[in-house]
Amino acid sequence: KAGVTQTPRYLIKTRGQQVTLSCSPISGHRSVSWYQQTPGQGLQFLFEYFSETQRNKGNFPGRFSGRQFSNSRSEMNVSTLELGDSALYLCASSLLQGARLDEQYFGPGTRLTVT
Amino acid sequence: QKEVEQDPGPLSVPEGAIVSLNCTYSNSAFQYFMWYRQYSRKGPELLMYTYSSGNKEDGRFTAQVDKSSKYISLFIRDSQPSDSATYLCAMSRSGGSNYKLTFGKGTLLTVNP
């Protein structure tokens, strides 16, 4: 069974630009969560999508948004990029919303660098 | 005070050593405790998942939770070069709410052959 896939794996953008990251969950999984990982703040929850609806949101500004499609694939968008948005963006999938924490699987991440 | 504190290391040990990784936390409501391993250029992979206090063993890995001291540990016996990775602790009040997961910043471990 294929794992969680994220594209692209690496991305370099300029301040002020916007970026879209993509996540394909494990086949059959319907919940997708997004996390930001930085050396300074560690791993922080961004938002969770289930059945094409955002179910939970972390403490991030409105520049961070996402969506989920009917096939459970999810995209995350960051507008008006800032230098501090440079991070590893991780996607995790689970079968259902509110699944046990040990049933959540992470993808390899997209490394975003903002210059 | 940060909710979860984890010594970032780096920690360097010889092959075969016993490794001890630790996290402290301040929120007494945390009930679920996890350890993740993250290799370079990969996402975190769940290693251990425990509920409340006590020990849990899985092969060379042992997780300990001491809720009275708000302290959790991961022990790796007979460490191998393949154990070289960043280890993240994480904890939650609820077992089914990933949005409430609080992570430590991770400890970078290198096991030298």
In short:
The complex is a heterodimer of chains A (115) and B (113). With 115 residues, chain A is mainly β.
Can you give a write-up of this model?
The complex is a heterodimer of chains A (115) and B (113). By secondary structure, chain A is mainly β. In chain A, 0% of the residues lie in helices and 52% in strands. Chain A contains no helices and eleven strands. Chain A has strands spanning 5-7, 10-13, 19-24, 31-38, 42-50, 53-57, 64-68, 74-78, 87-94, 105-106, 110-114. In chain A, strands 2, 4, 5, 6, 9, 10 and 11 form a seven-stranded mixed sheet that branches. Chain A has a four-stranded antiparallel sheet with strand order 1-3-8-7, with no helix packed on it. The mean pLDDT of chain A is 94. With 113 residues, chain B is mostly beta strands. Chain B contains no helices and eleven strands. Chain B has strands spanning 4-6, 11-14, 19-25, 32-38, 45-51, 54-58, 61-66, 71-76, 85-92, 102-103, 107-112. In chain B, the strands form two sheets. In chain B, strands 2, 4, 5, 9, 10 and 11 form a six-stranded mixed sheet that branches. Chain B has a five-stranded antiparallel sheet with strand order 1-3-8-7-6, with no helix packed on it. Chain A binds chain B through residues 4, 33, 39, 41-45, 47-48, 56-58, 90, 92, 94, 98-102, 104, 106-109, 111, and chain B through 32, 34, 41-46, 49, 88, 90, 92, 95-101, 103-106.
List the helices and strands and how they pair.
The complex is a heterodimer of chains A (115) and B (113).
Chain A: E1 5-7, E2 10-13, E3 19-24, E4 31-38, E5 42-50, E6 53-57, E7 64-68, E8 74-78, E9 87-94, E10 105-106, E11 110-114
Parallel strand pairs in A: 2-11
Antiparallel strand pairs in A: 1-3, 3-8, 4-5, 4-9, 5-6, 7-8, 9-10, 9-11
Chain B: E1 4-6, E2 11-14, E3 19-25, E4 32-38, E5 45-51, E6 54-58, E7 61-66, E8 71-76, E9 85-92, E10 102-103, E11 107-112
Parallel strand pairs in B: 2-11
Antiparallel strand pairs in B: 1-3, 3-8, 4-5, 4-9, 6-7, 7-8, 9-10, 9-11
